[in-house]
Amino acid sequence: MGFLDKVTEITKSATNKAGNTYEITKLKLKINEAEKTVNEKIIQLGSWCLAQAEAGVVFEGEGAEILAEIAAAKKTIADIEAEIADIKTVPETPAEPAPAPAAGKKFCLQCGTALAADAKFCQSCGAKQE
Ligand SMILES: [Zn+2]
Predict the structure, then answer these.
(1) What confidence tens digit (pLDDT) does each residue in 18-67 have?
(2) Rg, the chain, Cα only
(3) 28 CA distance to ligand 1 middle (Å)
(4) In the prediction, which pLDDT does 88 show?
(5) Is residue 94 within 8 Å of 108, Cβ to Cβ?
(6) Which of 20, 63, 81, 128 would be 59's cystine partner, CB 3.0–4.6 Å?
């Protein structure tokens, strides 16, 4: 086999490999889709079983155990929701209005008159401000 033939051969093989990888990826995506369907249907099946149980159908063995666990979890949810409702019905103490910020103001140390932030003396009583 000549050098060029060999190169052609390698190139072809690489192309095939790339093609195969693409093909495999495509097929794996199909598997993922089918797996998603399986999982969705398992959940749907579970919901159906639960509806059956709630309608009075009696399950045995593992089915009964799983249904008991679901019932216990549902009770936990109901209990916690009731607890939350209790918390919410406690009247909230209204938040104290925040004192208005005395921006750029201070008050006389002596008489309490509002003064400019940079005032050295009180304009009312004349007390020195520091
Ligand atoms: Zn003053």
Answers:
(1) 778 899 999 999 999 999 999 999 999 999 999 999 999 999 999 999 99
(2) 39
(3) 85
(4) 81
(5) no
(6) 63
